[in-house]
Write a structure and sequence with these properties.
The chain contains eleven helices and 14 strands. It is of the alpha+beta class and 394 residues long. About 4% of the residues have low confidence. The structure holds S-adenosylmethionine. InterPro entries: H3K4_H4K5_MeTrfase, SET_dom, SET_dom_sf.
């Protein structure tokens, strides 16, 4: 029997949601997700935000964090932390075999940075017809054919095409998700994957597994209909990641990080690089992750109050937290607690009641304006009872 105070069940308006199994008093902690499955800290904040607990250096009176993992040379990759404990926790999280280190992780991120150095050099002007599609062109069949064509064209040599900062951050998010997928396959006994406990914080879960992430509703078609240019962008990111992995495979014989094989190569890197290459040989996994990005991820915000104007530092996929649907009169609130995200009851919740957060500013009194925001930014038409009530009484 599940330890959660709610069940995940189909909703009358499609997809699934969380329904209270018992009476939940106001203020009770309902769920604590200890960490996300995939994360990205915006590149411009990489030195200011701890990669483990997301602490923002400015809030501690510092310009940046000084504890770093990775070499100092240009294009070597790197990641910053607020403390040695956070650095150790990061290594533990990515270590395939305890004590072997995460040299392979540095190599992959270094390769990413080297691709950035090549970007924009010797670019031959090309016209991508996908850039000009309109909502009328977008059908499930068209999207399918476009992805198929992308996976059938092999990764060329070198990468010079420019990607926007947002695209690069999305590529880092997707890469992090794929890395977790292949780590999970390489070591299915990874101890932190399925942790579930009930303690003072209520029902607590770990990041979950790829299969859990894939259970979430995807909104590929809905999003591309609203923003047709995202199809070209997603295909570009897929091609970029294939290039990245191809470049790893050709460098493997000169690597010395991680544990050495008799040939002097890095075993964990080869294992991960080969698995990444295989996972990107079709578009399935990268596409599925992108299809669940918008609509399921949570922004990582600094801790400043709303009046002070808080800043978004990145975004993260907290799988278990993503089962909560939106309601314009929510009964749950969420708070970030370091790397974790916690959900609490905003009021008493009755058995059988759906448990929802708000994805937007629910104080907006105009239901049409709220619907517009949800359709434009979240790609769905709101079916909550407040909207239904307000819209039918107009
Ligand atoms: C974070 S997920 C919530 C879990 C999702 N229902 C599932 O089964 O995976 C967000 C998606 O749920 C659906 N959704 C959430 N709140 C909704 C609402 N108030 N009305 C209609 N659909 C909603 C939309 O499809 C949205 O893209």
């Amino acid at each position: 029997m599940s330890l959660a105070p709610y069940d995940i069940l189909p909703t009358p308006y499609g997809g699934r949601g969380a329904f209270a199994r018992r009476f939940i008093p106001k203020g009770s902690p309902v769920l604590l997700c200890s960490g996300p499955y995939a994360t990205v800290i915006f590149w411009k904040f990489r030195r200011e935000v701890c990669a483990t607990c997301f602490a923002y250096a400015f809030e501690s009176g510092k310009r940046k964090w000084s504890i770093k993992l990775g070499e100092n040379s240009r294009g070597a990759g790197g990641v910053w932390f607020c403390s040695e404990e956070c650095k150790d926790a990061f290594v533990q999280d990515y270590e395939l075999v305890a004590g072997q280190g995460i040299g392979w992780w540095g190599e992959i991120n270094g390769a990413f940075e080297r691709m950035l150095l090549q970007m924009g050099k010797d670019v031959k002007p090309t016209v991508d017809p996908l850039e000009d599609i309109t909502a009328a062109d977008v059908t499930a069949e068209f999207i399918e054919k476009t992805w198929l064509a992308a996976e059938q064209s092999p990764p060329g040599r070198g990468w010079t095409e420019e990607l926007s900062e947002y695209e690069l951050d999305t590529a880092r998010f997707v890469l992090d998700g794929l890395v977790h997928k292949v780590m999970e396959e390489a070591n299915p006994a990874f101890p932190s994957l399925d942790r579930v406990v009930v303690g003072a914080e209520g029902y607590c879960v770990s990041a979950g597994r790829w299969a859990d992430l894939m259970e979430l509703q995807d909104n590929e078609l809905a999003m591309i209909k609203v923003k047709p240019y995202t199809l070209a962008s997603r295909i570009r990111l897929y091609r970029f990641l294939r290039h990245l992995v191809a470049s790893l495979a050709t460098r493997k014989n000169v690597m010395r990080s991680g544990s050495a094989t008799p040939e002097g190569t890095s075993m964990p890197l080869i294992r991960i690089a080969d698995r990444l290459k295989s996972v990107l040989s079709t578009s399935l996994a990268a596409r599925a992750l992108m299809a669940r990005d918008h609509g399921n991820v949570f922004g990582i915000w600094d801790m400043a109050s709303e009046e002070e104007g808080s800043e978004m530092l990145g975004w993260a996929a907290y799988v278990s937290g993503s089962y909560f649907n939106h309601d314009c009169s929510p009964n749950l609130k969420k708070d970030r607690v370091g790397r974790a995200i916690q959900f609490r009851a905003l009021r008493d919740i009755l058995p059988g009641e759906e448990m929802c957060i708000s994805y937007i500013d629910e104080d907006c009194p105009d239901p049409k304006e709220r619907s517009r925001q949800l359709e434009q930014d979240w790609f769905f038409a709101c079916c909550c009872s407040k909207c239904k009530r307000q819209l039918t009484h107009e």
